[in-house]
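User: two proteins, same treatment. go.

Assistant:
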Amino acid sequence: MSGEASFWSERRILLTGAHGFLGAALTARVAARGPRELLTPSRSELDLLDRAQIDAYLAAHRPDVVIHGAAVVGGIGANRAQPGRFFYENALMGIQLIDAAYRSKVEKFVCIGTTCAYPKFTPVPFREDDLWNGYPEETNAPYGIAKRALLVQLQAYRQQYGFRGIFLVPANLYGPGDHFDIESGHVIPAMIEKFTRAVETNAEEVVLWGDGSPTREFLYVDDAADAIVMAAESYDDAEPVNIGTSEEVSIRALATQIAELTHFRGGIVWDTSQPNGQPRRRLDVSRAEERFGFRARVRLSDGLKRTVEWYAREVLSTEY
């Protein structure tokens, strides 16, 4: 039996956030590797805000590996509307789970971070060593700081207790199964929803936030799931690891691509009274390739096409 196969077949895996966007892709990847047991509790089965529930669940199920993918997430609008919730719930879920995992003798903890943790004016490409060189962009700083705190906790627990925790920093995720909502969704699903509605109502224009100049790096959800599985198998160091494509695109260019894919022929109006968010994002992804051999496979143009086609088929019950 190969090392990767035996890693999974010999272990019970707890995956938090398994019923979310990334969680669904992760569940499929882990299940395909034949773990001894795959635990995918819903929030009603395991409320990560309740320490007593966490302790009872770990005592009853005894996972060997925890992959912590649960998070309260959203786009700029959601972060701006609920900064307190985004800080408190993300910090508390992770802090409690990490401590409980250590105390119940979990063998390995895989924590999913966020590029929102990087300073607002991080030099491009973002290198993991730059995480502490400034304060995050204001609109998502509470979320980013909460995730930073989990990195500190994992490093502290490794230093003091020898607890094997790793911290991964994925680029902005997208793909089939995402949360398609104009108000609370991330930029790609929100744009797809907005342009599609405009086509349905024969709207002459679509209004988007900011001026379109910021850049972002997007990672297809299946690539993210592959990276997390590979890191769980093979990576065991204190340093955080970026997960991405190193492919940078402006929000303006992204909007043009999505408009074409959704067959929107009207105009795009940029509402500069609304925030741009972080000016640029592109990750240095060399550490992931060097440490556990990950390289993203899906280019943005292909991933956007797959995502729009899925949305049309599964949400609109039509074909593009």
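Protein 2:
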Amino acid sequence: MDAVVFPGQGSQRPGMGAPWVGTPSWAVVGELSEILARDVASLLLDADAPTLQATRNAQVAGFALGLVGLDAARRAGLHWEVAAGHSLGEYTALVAVGALAVADAARLVGERAEAMQEAADASPGTMAAVLGLEPGDVAACCDEAGGEAWPANDNAPGQIVVAGTHEGVRRAGEAARSKGGKVLPLSVGGAFHTPLMAGAQERLDRALGAAPFAGAEGAVVTNVDADAHHAASDWSGLLSSQLCLPVRWRESILRMEELGVTRVIELGPGAVLAGMVKRTAPGLSRAGVAGPDDLAEWA
């Protein structure tokens, strides 16, 4: 059984759309540009790293590239019974199982990106990966930061992301180093999946309340509870909760394995999620599809 997974913000890089130019799936970019009234192709081809770090740009670009990969995977005849996405990638995962139409998902992502940009501007923050420590140790490091840092992503064994104010993340990082951990700053524009995103909640909830969700044709393993969902009535609440709650990605990988998944196919730039799968469930086969050449190898 195959699962498709989609990365979130932080995986973006300049020129990441170039491998797809000239392929039939590149037409998705023009469709999204019309829906969002933005030059999405420029984000995928011309934007530099600082431009892509801005939340309103990173989320649109990452979502667009995920949809390009999804379209190409379908054209190649790939099939999947399970989908999941890391943070932003959860919206693409819902498209992958028919729970959201492309246009509706694009509008939601556009609203989410703007709402989170506003929240990040009002409550500046950052994120950093802590390597080599257990979740309880990382939580203790955040406590030492005085309520300005929180565990935001449990990605894989030995890889926990903390988020908070710049000073809070700095203090939590110092505490982590004192316990033997390694700390790597992330290229993001805010403290996502923490209380600092609460300012985005009302705008996102209005958009979610108006979205025409459908039941899923396969299971979606979601961030907030690491469990499989199918019902149309589930999505709005889950996506709303996701905004300020941690991403339980390690548990999500284990849940996919419990469901009978044997291969995880990552559609997006690089193979960050595939690497997390390797660390968490080494018995699962992994495939990273960042361009059409990769797809030809794995289809």
